[in-house]
Design brief:
Elements lengths: L2 E5 L2 E4 L7 E3 L15 E3 L2 E3 L3 E3 L8 H9 L3 E5 L11 H8 L5 H10 L6 H15 L3 E4 L4 H10 L4 E5 L6 E2 L8 E2 H7 L4 E6 L2 H8 L5 E4 L9 H5 L5 H19 L4 E5 L5 H10 L3 E4 L1 H4 L9 E3 L13 E3 L6 H6 L11 H12 L4 H4 L4 E3 L4
Parallel strand pairs: 6-7, 6-15, 7-8, 8-9, 9-12, 12-13, 13-14, 14-15
Antiparallel strand pairs: 1-2, 3-18, 4-5, 10-11, 16-17
Length: about 375
């Protein structure tokens, strides 16, 4: 691992973003119709390596069902507007009229002050199950012990424990119940994906708890202000590669394969291809899907922690609508910047580099652009 001296005896590791990497064409090419972009998350088969982020601007019951029809998997936020309001459409419509700035942060805090309701958790999961047959939803580490019962009772199939950064044990205070992830996965027969993580050490601890997947994110999301608010952030390409290496070590140690899902800042087909080449099995999309005509944000996007009552860490942003979700994922593209037809871009990248499956694409040669 390369380190540099930043002054005195203090050193820092060198990391790379996806933008700093390029895929290198190989000696063999392949027709894009001869590549396979399917994968398996635990026992669930998915036709495309895409998860919809648990953001209210991205994933609603309707868009989760649509994403399932398109081969992906939507993750509904069980602490979001859909479990706080009987019908959040008016709230979403109001949010869509806001403009970036401090007043919007205050208004988001007010709207999210409405408490989460257990009966709405159960109702949303029941609605999704009727439409998709497989339901994925998220909770933050601080609220898993409080709300998981309602979710499991309603038939949740996959739990995503999603936070700025997640460890094997969350230590609470006051009335908060600490989350011991190893104990949780042992108590319940439900697959758990957990994240975000950004280092091999954190990832392998989470893998040992029994998680079936880990989310890798270094604060790269376009609506995350975690690097500014907390000073925490890791370049995504390096984070994916380190966690993928930890997965290999854990596989040798246990015989159990854990999925690596890249999350944050992936907006183009090239990003998707490079994330998988760095070691990811799939990606979690936020802004890319917030640009869909069907997105509940209606041209707005805001972060998971944008409405935090003490320390908001997510900006509110306006997003250009690029077309239907089907076009954004599968084309045909009407733009030349890679933001439309993401899966088509992935297929062509696999064809040019000659790899027929996602697992083989992780053997692709990578090059760092320029020098530092």
């Amino acid at each position: 691992m390369q380190r540099i001296t930043i002054g005195g005896a203090r050193q820092a590791r060198v990391g790379y973003t996806l933008d700093e990497l390029s895929l290198v064409p190989s000696k063999r090419t392949r027709d894009r119709g001869l590549v396979d972009v399917s994968w398996r998350l635990d026992h669930h088969e998915l036709a495309a390596p895409v998860l919809g982020a648990p953001l209210d601007a991205v994933t609603s019951p309707d868009t989760a069902a649509l994403l399932a029809d398109l081969g992906g998997l939507g993750v509904l936020n069980l602490e979001g507007l859909w479990t706080r309001y009987e019908d959040p459409e008016d709230v979403l419509a109001e949010i869509a009229t806001l403009q970036p700035g401090p007043d919007t942060t205050v208004r988001l805090q007010q709207l999210y002050a409405e408490p989460v309701k257990a009966e709405l958790i159960g109702r949303r999961i029941t609605q999704l199950r009727a439409r998709t047959g497989f339901v994925a939803a998220s909770l933050t580490p601080q609220k898993v012990e409080r709300w998981h019962g309602a979710a499991l009772e309603a038939g949740l199939d996959l739990l995503v424990i999603h936070g700025v950064t997640v460890t094997a044990q969350h230590v609470g205070h006051g009335e908060a119940t600490p989350l011991d992830l190893r104990s949780f996965t042992a108590r319940y027969d439900i697959p758990v994906v957990v994240g975000n993580v950004s280092s091999a050490k954190s990832a392998i601890h989470l893998m040992r708890t029994g998680a079936v997947g880990v989310l890798v994110g270094g604060g790269a999301s376009s609506v995350s202000t975690t690097p500014e608010a907390l000073g925490i952030g890791v370049p995504l390409a390096t984070a994916i590669a380190e966690v993928a290496h930890a997965r290999t070590r854990y596989l040798d140690e246990s015989g159990r394969y854990v999925h690596v899902i890249a999350a944050g800042g992936i907006t183009t087909g090239g990003d998707l291809a490079k994330a998988i080449a760095c070691g990811a099995d799939a990606v979690m999309l936020g802004r890319a899907l917030a640009a869909a005509e069907e997105a509940p944000g209606r041209g707005a996007n805001w972060g998971l922690s944008a409405a935090h009552h003490e320390l908001p860490r997510g900006r509110y942003a306006r997003v250009e609508t690029l077309g239907p979700m089907e076009v954004i994922l599968h084309g045909p593209a009407h733009r030349d910047d890679g933001t439309v037809n993401l899966i088509g871009g992935l297929r062509r990248a696999m064809g040019v580099t000659g790899y027929e499956s996602l697992s083989l694409l992780r053997d692709a040669e990578l090059m760092v652009r320029g020098s530092r």
